């Protein structure tokens, strides 16, 4: 690669070689063809990535755009290895070239969709590998944006909330990976504007004996009382209680929610608002409603909201959820 970069003619030849990988990213025959192309493009040295492919466009930008297309290719959503390879290469390329050279809003939109990916592997792991790749990229990019003074507070707030949601998700290894990534981010001390930073630091850094793959619900339950993060924690709990997972995971999450709302019945409307948000987000994809509907049913079967069942009319959000479920059924 360095050889081709020595003069204009050799650089042009190198560009022609690189462009041969682009059609391979779109292969519809073999997933490994996409995987190989994504990995190869991610390994190009920074000096060459900074070459202009057109008058106003870096090679790196063109490659990242094509890699994002691989991640979001709905026809081949089950090609998880290819999508993960593409996300990993996006992270590598942006880190090497510099985040200021890219349309970060487009990149972050892809990562936001990826961090809630619901593609199930043959092992039954829902979205795990795609989500982990998205979290890794977020954790890499946040300090770079902060250093470049381009990090918006609303972006930081949203990303921390999204990672927190994964910390109490249904898959053991995903919870552990997410918690470790958030811990590492907090320990860097570069993102001073993280909301409730001290509270998060006390959970993820100071409590060194937490086994996140075993029980994330116990250490994160106090955040149900946190005005800023309660929605993220509730989303994770809902996915764990209503998803296809081990009964012990469901029971642990269910027990914590049951205990919290029995002690804080006045906060029940917050939970119902989150349920309604999830319903609104997936109203065109009914298959995605199975998890929240199941979680909702399990909460009430445990008698968490006996008072609400007796006087449902004073809880309009609850009534609306029941109407939505009836309509779906």
From TrEMBL:
<dbReference type="GO" id="GO:0005096">
    <property type="term" value="F:GTPase activator activity"/>
</dbReference>
<dbReference type="GO" id="GO:0016328">
    <property type="term" value="C:lateral plasma membrane"/>
</dbReference>
<dbReference type="GO" id="GO:0000226">
    <property type="term" value="P:microtubule cytoskeleton organization"/>
</dbReference>
<dbReference type="GO" id="GO:0070830">
    <property type="term" value="P:bicellular tight junction assembly"/>
</dbReference>
<dbReference type="InterPro" id="IPR022577">
    <property type="entry name" value="TBCD_C"/>
</dbReference>
<dbReference type="InterPro" id="IPR016024">
    <property type="entry name" value="ARM-type_fold"/>
</dbReference>
<dbReference type="GO" id="GO:0048487">
    <property type="term" value="F:beta-tubulin binding"/>
</dbReference>
<dbReference type="GO" id="GO:0034333">
    <property type="term" value="P:adherens junction assembly"/>
</dbReference>
<dbReference type="InterPro" id="IPR033162">
    <property type="entry name" value="TBCD"/>
</dbReference>
<dbReference type="GO" id="GO:0007023">
    <property type="term" value="P:post-chaperonin tubulin folding pathway"/>
</dbReference>
<dbReference type="GO" id="GO:0007021">
    <property type="term" value="P:tubulin complex assembly"/>
</dbReference>
<dbReference type="Pfam" id="PF12612">
    <property type="entry name" value="TFCD_C"/>
</dbReference>
<protein>
    <submittedName>
        <fullName>Tubulin-specific chaperone D C-terminal domain-containing protein</fullName>
    </submittedName>
</protein>
<feature type="domain" description="Tubulin-folding cofactor D C-terminal">
    <location>
        <begin position="158"/>
        <end position="324"/>
    </location>
</feature>
């Amino acid at each position: 690669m360095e050889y081709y970069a020595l003069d204009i003619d050799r650089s042009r030849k190198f560009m022609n070689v690189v462009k041969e990988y682009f059609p391979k990213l779109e292969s519809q025959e073999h997933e490994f063809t996409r995987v190989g192309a994504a990995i190869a493009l991610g390994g190009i040295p920074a000096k060459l990535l900074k070459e202009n492919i057109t008058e106003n466009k870096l090679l790196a930008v063109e490659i990242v755009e094509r890699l994002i297309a691989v991640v979001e290719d709905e026809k081949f959503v089950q090609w998880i290895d290819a999508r993960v390879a593409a996300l990993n290469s996006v992270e590598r390329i942006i880190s090497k070239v510099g985040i200021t050279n890219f349309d970060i809003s487009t990149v972050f939109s892809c990562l936001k969709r990826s961090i809630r990916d619901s593609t199930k592997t043959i092992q039954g792991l829902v979205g795990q590998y795609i989500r982990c790749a998205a979290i890794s990229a977020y954790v890499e990019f946040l300090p770079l944006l902060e250093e470049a003074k381009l990090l918006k507070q609303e972006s930081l707030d949203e990303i921390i909330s999204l990672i927190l949601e994964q910390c109490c998700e249904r898959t053991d290894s995903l919870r552990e990976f997410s918690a470790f990534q958030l811990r590492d981010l907090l320990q860097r001390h570069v993102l001073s504007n993280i909301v409730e930073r001290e509270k998060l630091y006390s959970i993820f850094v100071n409590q060194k004996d937490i086994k996140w793959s075993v029980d994330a619900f116990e250490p994160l339950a106090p955040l149900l009382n946190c005005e800023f993060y309660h929605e993220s924690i509730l989303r994770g709990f809902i996915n764990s209680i209503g998803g296809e997972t081990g009964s012990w995971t469901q029971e642990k999450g269910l027990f914590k929610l049951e205990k919290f709302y029995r002690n804080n019945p006045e906060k029940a409307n917050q939970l119902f608002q989150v349920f309604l948000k999830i319903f609104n987000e997936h109203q065109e994809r009914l298959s995605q409603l199975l998890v929240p509907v199941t979680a909702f049913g399990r909460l009430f079967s445990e008698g968490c909201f006996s008072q609400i069942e007796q006087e449902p009319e004073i809880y309009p959000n609850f009534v609306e959820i029941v109407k939505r479920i009836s309509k779906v059924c």
